[in-house]
Amino acid sequence: MTVTSQPNQYFNDVNQAIESETASLRELSLQIHGNPELGYKEVFAHKVLTDYLESKGFTVTRHAYEIDTAFVAEYASSAAVAAAAAGQKVKAVGFCSEYDALPGVGHACGHNLIAIAGVASALAVKAVLEKHNLVGRVRLVGTPAEETTGGKIPLIERGAFDGLEACLMTHPAPADIVYTQMLAVGGVLVEYFGKASHASASPWEGVNALDALITAYNGIGLLRQQTASTSRVHGIITHGGQAANIIPDYASGKFMYRAINVEDHAKLKKDLFRIFNAAAESTGCTVKITAEMEYKNVPHNELLAARYTAYTSDLGVKYMSRAAQEAQAGGSTDMGNVVHYLPGIHPLYNIVGLDGELDKDVTNHSYRFTEVAKTQVAHEATLRSAKGLALTGVDVLFEEGFSEAVKADFEKTVPHGGVNAVTKKLEALSAMNAGGCGCH
Questions:
Q1: How would you write the chain as a 3-class SS string?
Q2: Which of 57-61, 125-129, 413-417 bottoms out in mean pLDDT, i.e. has the lowest?
Q3: Which pLDDT belongs to residue 8?
Q4: Are strands 348-350 and 171-173 parallel, antiparallel or unpaired?
Q5: Peptidase M20 dimerisation domain location, by residue (predicted)?
Q6: Per-residue pLDDT tens over the stretch 263-272
Q7: 432 pLDDT exceeds 50?
């Protein structure tokens, strides 16, 4: 897939700004990689990133929006400050950094690289604003806990992304894919409560919570026959009882459900909750369902995606055809919630090489990916992707009519009024669940 970009007069500024910081950015990445921290516990990463950004002239808000390991770093040119004081609109573009790790395997999703990609992109846009004293602002949002409950979700609700024309981020992978299918995902803890009894002497006195959980598990297996090929349901039993000779009075499991869009996801959620409640009813147990996360799918903003593809192609990236990209199975991310709120993109970039092919030996969430995420090749790929984001961000700020066209594409792609309407729809579905399941 070959794409040629339109000339960007700030290309050299972006390239120089990032290349001049390559050593310090690599040091940041390796520090975070060597100190993996789980979601909402990213104390070290939060400190080194905010200290670095402050040293580079950003106005930094640590522990932003009452989230201990979130931050916001902003820069406005003097021309932007003057324009705002005069009552003029000043456009702003945003980027995201992630920096949480996975339990057991560390940075097996390369969030050390995502951290510096966001920093590099923001640095480059700042350099353009500063050098040419253009009217514009750049904001980097440090977003914790993507791997668990989704730090971007409360940040959206509390205003971290308000006032942005677009928000961009990138993600390491075993291939360069702009048009990936990132699915909507929900996660729930399902708990069944029964009555304990001796499994041999008086089993009839018991109410078997494990039976309820197994009934639900089997029901999900049958449901899969009627779900779309783009939907997924997976789960584990987290508690099945204490001893074989005791009827379990408590059993629990964790389940995740995914779909290609919000509408399919809402239907799948409704079907699952009906199974969970029916399993309780059929066994005489009670059930409690606790929502742990709710990520939306990532719709493609055609203009942002095409511009990023063009710039990274100019930088040497080779892409599969769009059809081949869309055929690749994807995961899920809370960036989906962001791009349902305002225009944005979430491309994947290859940390293995530039051949345009999928490397099946290096998959996200594997020990091998953890090792590759600290290599020089991965670092160079990260900066290449960051340059593509930064150049796209510059176009959002300064190319006449571009941000307006991006917004129009967003409104066409996300026609339900953004994240607020979608959230209300999902909340309405939750309220339909019988039996006081405790989902929220």
A1: CCCCCCCCCCHHHHHHHHHCCHHHHHHHHHHHHHCCCCCCCCHHHHHHHHHHHHHCCCEEEECHHHCCCCEEEEEECHHHHHHHHCCCCCCEEEEEECCCCECCCECCCCHHHHHHHHHHHHHHHHHHHHHHCCCCEEEEEECCCCCCCCCHHHHHHCCCCCCCCEEECCEEECCCECCCECCEEEEEEEEEECECCECCCCHHHCECHHHHHHHHHHHHHHHHHHCCCCCEEEEEEEECCCCCCECCCEEEEEEEEEECCHHHHHHHHHHHHHHHHHHHHHHCCEEEEEEEEEECCCCCCHHHHHHHHHHHHHCCCCCCCHHHHHCCECCCCCHHHHHCCCCEECCEEECCCCCCCCCCCCCCCCHHHHHHCCCHHHHHHHHHHHHHHHHHHHHHHHCCCHHHHHHHHHHHHCCCCCHHHHHHHHHHHHHCCCCCCCCC
A2: 413-417
A3: 82
A4: parallel
A5: 188-281
A6: 999 999 999 9
A7: no
Share of the chain above pLDDT 70, in %: 91
What is the average pLDDT value for the chain, to the nearest integer? Answer: 92
CB atoms within 10 A of CB 6: 9
Phi-psi region of 435 (alpha: psi -120 to 50; beta: other; left: phi over 0): left
In single-letter form, the type of residue at position 113 comes to L
Q: At what angle do helices 111-132 and 22-34 cross, to 10 degrees?
A: 150
- pLDDT for position 361: 81
* Cβ-proximal residues to 201 (8 Å cutoff; 6+ apart), any chain: none
Mean pLDDT to the nearest integer, 411-433:
49
111-132 helix and 11-19 helix, angle to the nearest 10 degrees: 130
Domains, the chain, ranges and CATH? 11-182+298-399 (3.40.630.10), 184-295+421-431 (3.30.70.360)
pLDDT at 330: 80
Q: Is the pLDDT of residue 439 over 80?
A: no
| Confidence label for 416 from pLDDT (cuts 50, 70 and 90) | low
